[in-house]
Amino acid sequence: MSSTARNTTRERLEARESAILDAAEGIFAQAGFDGAKIADIARAASVAEGTVYLYYKNKRDLLAGVIGRFWSQQTLGAEAAIDKEASTLDQLEQFGRYHLQSILNQFDVVSLTYRAQPQQAQDLDQVREYVKVFDRIMKQGVDRGELPPHTPVGHLRDVFFGTLEFSSRTLKLRGRSYDHSVVTNLLFLIAAQDQVKPASLETAAPSNEDLMKKLESIQRQLKELKTAK
Amino acid sequence: MSSTARNTTRERLEARESAILDAAEGIFAQAGFDGAKIADIARAASVAEGTVYLYYKNKRDLLAGVIGRFWSQQTLGAEAAIDKEASTLDQLEQFGRYHLQSILNQFDVVSLTYRAQPQQAQDLDQVREYVKVFDRIMKQGVDRGELPPHTPVGHLRDVFFGTLEFSSRTLKLRGRSYDHSVVTNLLFLIAAQDQVKPASLETAAPSNEDLMKKLESIQRQLKELKTAK
DNA sequence: ATACCAAAATGAATTTAATTCATTTAAAAT
DNA sequence: ATTTTAAATGAATTAAATTCATTTTGGTAT
Question: Which of A92, A144, B91, B182 could form a disulfide with B167 if both were Cys (CB 3.0 to 4.6 A apart)?
């Protein structure tokens, strides 16, 4: 078996698996898990019914495949949407905006996530990876001193994802589209919490003295500019 | 048909319907919606399979019955758990504690809620009633002057239920039981928001930090000007 | 190029479980 | 006591997931 041939074969199999996943995602999203018939999915993927079972053990497993792929892509998308150089709060806002927008745009696929079996731990592995994006932002925030060391990341994670999830349902229910104020309000809440608790010296807001010094420096520079002309 | 007889008949029918709902709740909670067999439910309720279909159109409708009854009871329980004389924040804490405790205790039944069809509006009528408990507390808070008039109740509703829901999943996942700090932290967040500013970032007064950032940006531009010369 | 093998694919047959319905049983009315 | 109506039954039907005996395909060796 030549290397080229092996590649061709594998590529053919992967293309077929992709076709099945694509078909399944479409039919599941459109008809729901129960409403989707393997026969329809097979037809949409241009394979025989039995072929689906060569790639996935059963309908549940196929669902897990669709969900896993979706959340993997979400993780990549989120990482692309976040500016590594931005402040922690800005990163959180970028992530929040990305999250809300994408779960709204792909509401039907996201809803399928709840049909996975939480008992089957690996069914939700990719969701767990996605959640880690939040954890990394928060950890970096603490390391950088932008968040207090005692920041309750676990709680805030549930606040963040819970709020955005429920907000997306509310928006959908009311037939409304993405609303940035949801993210803004949420960030406000999270930021407010940080302010209330005793902040470390590093994170202390600049004093008026600091501002005045900065202004005086600017004033000096302006004078230099004027005289230089 | 005598009044007594009519009563006896109706009572008999209601008892039977109750038996079916009890059986369904038990089997659904234990086996999940897909895993539950109508045959098992019928056996547990001591009726024939066909009898189930005299009371409920199909399996989905039976699920809706179980969910509806559960959330109706939740509404009654919540109203009993809330002291009408207490302050708004105390009432919110009482409700939050009740909500988290009960969704943890009856996690399997609550999970079934996500199997209802959001399209079928009336499937979730009782859930909507339950949510109104929150709205009434908030409205009363605004009327009493304990909350600012512009309090974003809709947004806070999603924060409240979303956070508690996700927190319950986290606790379940980690095999932990009710943790009051979840409620405390949530209340803290909500209270902080009221104190700070509930609207959007646009209307917020700029913090010293914001001023400092703006000044630093001006300073950078000045430097560029100077070196450009 | 041909024959052979193993992997992949097929779709008809099987299985499982929801739903229906002709029949029976029980209750209410006359 | 008889008739009528409502409720209940469970065997038969139906729908859809899953299996599996058979066929097809692609790669390898002669």
Answer: B182
